[in-house]
Amino acid sequence: MKLTFSDEAEAFRQKIASWLAENLGGEFAELRGRGGPGDEHSLVSERKAWEARLHAGGWTGIGWPKNEGGQGASLEQQVIFHEEYARAGGPGRMGHIGETLVGPTLIAFGSEAQKRRFLPGILQGLVFWCQGYSEPNAGSDLANVKTRATFHAERNEWTLSGQKVWTSLAHESQYCFVLARTDPTSVGHKGLGFFLVNLQQAGVVVRPIEQLTGTCEFNEVFFDEAVCADADRVGAVDGGWQVAMGLLGFERGASTLGQQMLFKNELADIIRHAKRNGAARDPMLRQRIADAEIGLRIMRANSLRMLSGSSDGSLQKEAMIYKLYWATWHRNLGKLAMDVLGAESEIVEQAPYGLSRLQAMYLFSRADTIYGGTNQIQRNIIAERALGMPREPRG
Amino acid sequence: MIRDTAASFLAEVSSPAAVRAAMVRAEGHDQQAWQRICDEMVWQALHIPESYGGMGLGYVELIALLEQMGRFLFCSPFYATVCLGANALLVAGTESQKTTYLPKIVAGSTATLAYTGSNGGWGADSIELIVAPHNGGVVLNGKCRYVPDGASAEILVVAARSKGSHGMSGVSLFVLPQETAGLTRSWLPTMDQTRRQAELVFDNVQLDSDAIMCEPGAAWPLLEKIIDLATVAIVADQVGCAQQSLDMTVSYVLQRVQFGRVIGSYQAVKHKCADMMVKAESARSALYYAACIAAEALVDGELGADLASAASAAKACGSDACFFNTGTAIQLHGGVGFTAEYDVQLYFKRAKSSETFLGDSAYHRERLAQRLLDEGAGDEINL
Ligand SMILES: Cc1cc2nc3c(=O)[nH]c(=O)nc-3n(C[C@H](O)[C@H](O)[C@H](O)COP(=O)(O)OP(=O)(O)OC[C@H]3O[C@@H](n4cnc5c(N)ncnc54)[C@H](O)[C@@H]3O)c2cc1C
Question: SUPFAM superfamilies annotated for this entry (chain A) (predicted)?
Answer without folding.
Answer: Acyl-CoA dehydrogenase C-terminal domain-like, Acyl-CoA dehydrogenase NM domain-like
